[in-house]
Amino acid sequence: MKCLKFLSIPVCSVFLLMGFIYYFTLFIFIEDWVGLQSSAGTLNALIFTLIASLCLFSFSACVLTDPGHVPYSYVPDVEGNDASDQESLNNSSQLRQCDKCCAHKPPRAHHCRICRRCVLRMDHHCLWINNCVGYWNYKAFFILVLHATVASVYSMVIIICCAFQKNWDFGGRIPLKIFYAVSGALMVALSGTLGTLLGWHIYLITHNMTTIEYYEGIRASWLARKSGQIYRHPFDLSAYKNITMVLGPNMLKWLCPTATSHLKDGMNYPTSHDS
């Protein structure tokens, strides 16, 4: 049943775009630049094929991996009345009710109107992967954006190098010039878009936020300033701890989208108040 997620127009469009970029980068631009049979051409083809394969693997992991849902048996753990004020504040944040599911929500879980369920540590619903980006597939999504950015920049550099080594004249070969211009513009736009998205999620990871929590934090910060207080995101521990909570403690496994053994149940998260 999971494979049915691939039967989506946006998902198929991503596959077609990957195949198109891979084809014209290798068999048109690298071939035209240094030749695929040369040592430089073979090396560039192998590197780009490796990056493209990692993109494809990460994309498949994003589509197929369940982001995590709230179990029907979930009941928030509420301590007794003798708890401190700070503990009471933390407990009150756990008493979150979903009006649509008619059930309790753990911290950082949100209801997705498209998936029609509450998703653990929901970041957003992504049309291009036909899935929510949540607790279990956020790492795969981040690695996908990283690899896709590297692949786009790599392809863009190859196109630019190929264009500069050509001896362009102002005569014929108009279709070839149009193809170069369109391909270059496509890769510049794609590299800029993916690079911006990568930078955004690097910011979120280093602050241990989701996209939803970022916009919730804007309002919380505004309310805190009105009352003369300072708002701090409660799950922001430190840059390194925030990174390891998403990518894992083993740096050798950071670029593997399916290395998620460090993840727990997604029901509880350490906060800055715990320390």
From TrEMBL:
It is a multi-pass membrane protein. PROSITE patterns: DHHC (PS50216). It catalyses: L-cysteinyl-[protein] + hexadecanoyl-CoA = S-hexadecanoyl-L-cysteinyl-[protein] + CoA. It holds the Pfam family DHHC. Keywords: Acyltransferase, Membrane, Transferase, Transmembrane, Transmembrane helix. It comes from the Eukaryota. The chain crosses the membrane at residues 7-30, 42-64, 141-166, 178-200. Residues 93-216 form the Palmitoyltransferase DHHC domain. The keyword Transferase applies. Its main location: membrane. This is S-acyltransferase. It comes from Manihot esculenta (Cassava).
